[in-house]
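Box S1 | Example of a co-folding query
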Amino acid sequence: MNIGVLTGGGDCPGLNAAIRAVVRRAVDKGNSVTGIKNGWQGLISSDFEPLDLRLVSGILPIGGTFLGTSRTNPEKIPGGYEIILKNFQEARLDALVAIGGDDTLSVALALSDKGVPVVGVPKTMDNDVYGTDFCIGFYSAVSIVTDALDKLHSTASSHHRVMVLEVMGREAGWVALLGGLGGGADWIVIPEVPSTMDHIVDHLDERRGLGKDFSIIVVAEGAVIPDIKAESAGIGGDAFGHERLDKRGVGDAVSREIERRTGFETRVTVLGYVQRGGSPVVFDRILATRLGVEAVDLLNKGKYGVMTALQGNQIVTLSLKEAISKSPRKVDPQLYELARIFF
Ligand code: F6P
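Box S1 (continued) | Returned holo structure for 6-O-phosphono-beta-D-fructofuranose
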């Protein structure tokens, strides 16, 4: 079997580990592997690279994806799916492993419905793909947020300031919540749980009354705070219609409002794309390895149209149709209640 492998959507640490696992297992099974460059764009433009053990040697700890990625959506290209099917045949591909988030996997589902043997592997720092407890890239992002909070604690305490940290995650608050929990944030604002400026300001005043003369607040880029004006910047969405949430400036707006209402010196840090950089943490290396191997095994068993997933400590599969129809997966309210113990 000639297996095509691609990485689509936002990059993250762990993608190379997944590609490595796919190639190693495929060679194990006597399959050949074709790297598809830059996500679905590679199948639109027949941009392929034969992969072998030599090419994936040593890439486990390297961030990003050496295949490249994009947010290419065949729906937005006239005849996009027909072009992909033609190029798939001409390249003599027999099956696909699509590593990506719900956008990438929605294209995988469409191709599966058109008869292409495909298995999806869940990847996104947002951790919002339904059916898996964790996505590749998530814990690396959580570690980066936690490290940033550790660094902000020292400067906040030195200057007796309130520091606001804006983090990514789109409409889900997973990164903000777990990063904030790991970094001991004094308040965490996520899209799933309404916070008002009164909540935040009262909490800051209470902390000051207890002699805590600095605070750290994590705000998810998709958070909606009733009395804060952070509208979409009106920049057209990406090929899947997603707005650039970093342009809303919610962290900066919260920071300015805190200073206006409390008089406390307040500063904002927008962590941005640092959350998707660097070497994968060991959790992501192992998750990527397990999911990549499983994807190749499923194809060799003739199981298509499914996504590999981690549930508990078990690698399981669910249909791409179910995974896509129930994404994005929002934060578990019980997890937020746990975090609320600490702020
Ligand atoms: O989906 C991952 C993500 O990092 C989101 O958290 C963020 O809002 C988005 O990608 C940014 O998109 P882009 O990389 O296209 O700027």
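DSSP finds twelve helices and eleven strands in the chain. The pocket of 6-O-phosphono-beta-D-fructofuranose is lined by residues 10, 71, 101, 124-126, 168-170, 221, 238, 245, 276 (CB under 6 Å).
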